[in-house]
Design brief:
With 522 residues, the chain is mainly α. It has two domains: 259 residues, no CATH class; 230 residues, no CATH class. Helix 1 crosses helix 5, helix 15 packs antiparallel against helix 16 and helix 16 packs antiparallel against helix 18.
């Protein structure tokens, strides 16, 4: 086995070095901002132990699940880049085997994620030590999280070998999510019985189980369970990586020269209406047609809007049937937040999708040789966004208004609110509904600007998402903390104006840079 050529090839790439430097700098800056936020909150919060409140929920709750998703997406991009540039087949005709390519990619990703993780250690370890955790607990927790990243990267590589690169992470997450549910707070809402017994039996496949048992193992309580989960999932990760290396040559031969639509028989027929639709779109805007060839964009956003609503509605039904504590308003808030996160992730990603693909493949140079101006390209992009996402966004805003009014009229869906809580409920939902369109507008422009230099779609949309929303929420939190978390209407008005100005600044600056630098980026 000789994976050194793959490893050195990746590390010598100048684009990878620049991206790696930006990622380390971003993580270190985020860690510093987190520590500063804790210090400011502890200073102006009256001596409240903020570290216990801030770190416990992310580390022991949903954080392993989110880290697993990030690992899957990172691994799927490793082979997607090779397929898009046409270099995967060239690598396989050399003396390198499938195992050499997969293990080289895997080692490069593990080292990259490890170095990035080192930049965030101060923001992770110091709050844990402030909570009273020992150095042994921190070490075991770091070991469990490292194993989680390795497992997700190996599984993502196997999915990227067997499926198309951009859908590999989604398929892996879909098939593996029942096992992961047991280690998340959602397991509290699964009724005991055969389902829970089945999920408990499959925990030896779950890398999050080692994270859940790290603290108890450090305290000396059943450490064999922690090491058992850790060893089993680590061995399973190597098994996934070995299977990916074994199947890579066969999968590449099978997918060579075939488009994704040709792999499914029901896409093979060509309808006459498609030519009419293409003519109509080309007459309106040439770039609108290029940006409107994704068959599943609208269907996927409807699916991701309906699935969280169905999940949280099931929890509402369980609360109603079991006659426990009435927390229906909490699940209604979760529905609204899940819708907002879905739109904030999918709409900007689609805005930058065509631009990133055309720039990396060289099509953007051909497009700009035609009598098409940057403003015409931007106009076509926004027309495609309206074509795909106007109905889902309108439905989310309409249903959100209905939920807002229902919660206000029913005093929190069952009398859980007093007069002051009703005012907070109405203000929170109203500002959320009003700020969804400008937030999507700013996120789309920032994603389009980042599409001019990003290596892939994830860097264009995800980093733009973090850049805009993290800045807005951090500034709003800082103002609220300094003002002592006052509930005065004046402070709420100031926060709304500041948020609107920040979104306007991001959107206008990104639009100007996009139109100015589009031709030079091609």
């Amino acid at each position: 086995m000789n994976f050194v050529p793959i490893l050195t090839r990746e590390w010598r790439c100048l684009d990878w070095q620049r991206v790696f430097h930006r990622q380390r700098l971003g993580v270190a800056a985020s860690a510093a901002a987190g520590l500063i936020a804790l210090a400011v909150a502890d200073r102006f919060g009256g001596g409240v132990n903020v570290s216990r409140m801030v770190t416990f929920a992310p580390l022991m709750g949903i954080a392993p699940f989110m880290l697993f998703i990030l690992g899957l997406h990172g691994a799927s991009a490793l082979l997607a880049t090779e397929r898009r540039e046409g270099t995967l087949g060239l690598l396989l005709i050399t003396r390198l085997s499938g195992w050499d390519i997969v293990f080289g990619k895997l080692l490069q990703a593990v080292v990259t994620q490890g170095v990035i993780f080192l930049a965030a250690i101060p923001a992770l370890v110091l709050p844990l030590l402030a909570m009273g955790s020992s150095w042994r607990a921190c070490f075991l927790l770091g070991l469990a999280y490292g194993n989680l990243v390795f497992f997700s990267l190996a599984l993502g590589l196997l999915g990227a070998v067997l499926t198309e690169g951009r859908s590999a992470a989604s398929w892996c997450l879909l098939w593996f999510s029942p096992v992961l549910v047991y280690s998340t707070p959602f397991a509290l809402f699964v009724r005991s019985g055969r389902v829970m017994e089945w999920l408990s039996t499959l925990q030896w496949l779950n890398p999050c189980a080692a994270v859940a048992h790290a603290s108890s193992a450090a305290a000396g309580f059943q450490p064999e369970r922690f090491w058992g989960y850790l060893g089993a999932t680590h061995g399973l990760g190597w098994l996934f990586a070995g299977a990916a290396g074994l199947l890579l040559p066969w999968a590449n031969r099978r997918q060579a020269g075939r488009t994704p639509s040709e792999r499914w028989s029901w896409f093979s027929s060509v309808k006459s209406t498609s030519f009419e639709s293409r003519k109509r779109l080309l007459e309106r805007n040439p770039f609108l047609w290029l940006n409107s060839r994704d068959r599943w964009a609208s269907t996927m956003v409807w699916l991701w809007v309906l699935l969280p609503a169905a999940l949280w509605s099931w929890f509402i039904w369980l609360t109603w049937v079991l006659r426990g504590l009435n927390v229906i308003f909490v699940f209604v808030i979760a529905i609204g937040l899940s819708w907002a996160m879905t739109l904030a992730c999918m709409v900007p990603a689609h805005a930058a999708r065509q631009m990133v693909a055309d720039r990396l493949s060289g099509v953007l140079e051909v497009v700009l040789c035609a009598p098409i101006t940057p403003k015409l390209i931007a106009q076509g992009t926004w027309m495609a966004l309206r074509r795909y996402f106007l109905m889902p966004v309108s439905a989310v805003l309409g249903v959100g208004a209905i939920l807002m009014i229902s919660g206000y009229v029913t005093f929190g869906f069952g009398g859980m609110f007093d007069t002051e809580d009703r005012t907070h409920w109405l203000w929170a939902w109203l500002t959320g509904i009003l700020f969804v369109p400008p937030a999507l507008w700013a996120l789309c422009w920032v994603s389009l600007r980042r599409a001019l230099f990003a290596r892939n779609l994830g860097e264009a949309s995800a980093i733009g998402f973090v850049q805009v929303l993290f800045t807005v929420f951090f500034v709003l939190w800082l103002i609220s903390t300094v003002s002592g978390y006052s509930n005065s209407p004046l402070l709420k008005l100031v926060l709304a104006i500041v948020a609107a100005l920040l979104l306007l600044t991001f959107g206008v600056a990104a639009r100007r840079n996009f139109l100015k630098n589009l031709r030079s980026a091609a």
